[in-house]
Amino acid sequence: MDTFSRNDQPNNSGAAGALKTGVGASPRLLNTTVCVPIVYGSIAFFLGKKADEYHTHRWTLYVRSPNGEDLSTGISKVVFQLHPSFPQPVRELTAPPFEVTEKGWGEFEATIRIVWRDPGEKATVLTHGIKLYPPGLTQITPATTSKEPVVHEFYDEVVFTDPTEAFHRQLMRSSVLPRIQSHEPTVQENFPTYADEEDFKALLAAQKFLEDELRDVKDRIMKADMAREEIEEALRVAATAKASSSQSGGKSGSSSGKGGGSGGKTKSSGGGGTASKKSKASH
Predict the structure, then answer these.
(1) Does 82 reside within a domain?
(2) For residues 113 and 75, what is the distance between their CA atoms, to the nearest angstrom?
(3) What is the pLDDT of residues 118-131, one digit of tens each?
């Protein structure tokens, strides 16, 4: 399945909106998602008569596209972290095919780190268990010494939301470049294919589910932002009303105090006292 892009712009202009992220930066394509299908896994072969105590199998660990598309249009490098017992357990590849081939006797978990060409995108980190034996078996038996390889791989999709214009162009070039093949012919021959109609329908269903989930998350974030803004506005209104109430209450108290003082002076200076003196004089 090829890399594809989708524009969720609500209008019918046919072009996504762009948002400039910084000085000299490529603008981001708003309401746009790009889906990059990848496959990561391992294929192991029993060495048969060439096997010894420490080298029973030859295996290849890889990251590839489902149908051989060139992933280097979007991938800057792939870093494989092997078991510490291997010489140079950290293998860094900057060009396809992104694969490591070794010989060994035991199964282990490897870490795969995919670094994208856009520095603003986070690296994709995967963990993969390298399997040497068929499911349910952990050692060499007559059932594990056949020439049939042990294939253990997974399909996944990396989705980029609102990518930059430059990165978007890079990702969309993968389908027009020559196909990539493994350095190991026997590995290439045993790669599972993803061209069946049922697989295609399942992938489309998975993509739709993912897009619905992303849209739901965006809606929830938008509603949360709106609710936060409403709360902040209500707090501002309440604070303003409280400050206004405090100011008007202070002015009212000040005016009342002045009136009371004046009345006290009238009583003490003459109003009541003068009347009392006049009454006594008349008698």
Answers:
(1) yes
(2) 11
(3) 999 999 999 999 99
